Amino acid sequence: MGTSMSSSLLDLMTLKRADWSILKEIAKKIGEQNPKSCFECTKCTSGCPAAEFLEMYPHNIVCAVREGLAEEIINSDVIWRCALCLKCKERCPQEVAPSDLIIALRNIATDRGVGVPEDLNSVLNSIMEIGYIHPPMKAFSRRLRKTYTREELGLKVLKGPKDMDAFREALMAAFEE
Asked: Model-level pTM greater than 0.70?
């Protein structure tokens, strides 16, 4: 994965040259999955539930890293838009695992102090405060023009974690790993 090229690739959007040094760092984090194995079949992208929200598709991210443009990916929001559903990993016939690559890029970004997007921070803050991304809402029937609680619909009442302090501690420990 860490081959160097005599002629350096140029990103025409940023006019930056390809940086091959980061590939060793990525290789340590992703193990045997090799971005160079990707032949751009786009199976990862075709199964991606977040693809419509991404400025770069999973196979594009793999290709950009393969071409030495990992720094641009790390410094963009694209790695934070992935839902980490792992469908791309399941679908890849070459076992490239774009999701593992995205996790590695996220780890490198946080190690380097690249900020997490503000909207993701607000989601994490909500989870830390109440145990959910947002509190359970009432359901609305357009036909009956009426709102219903979970109880009225025969659903269990959702409660936050029993011990919020233990939940927060476990969540913080997971982030530190």
From this structure: no
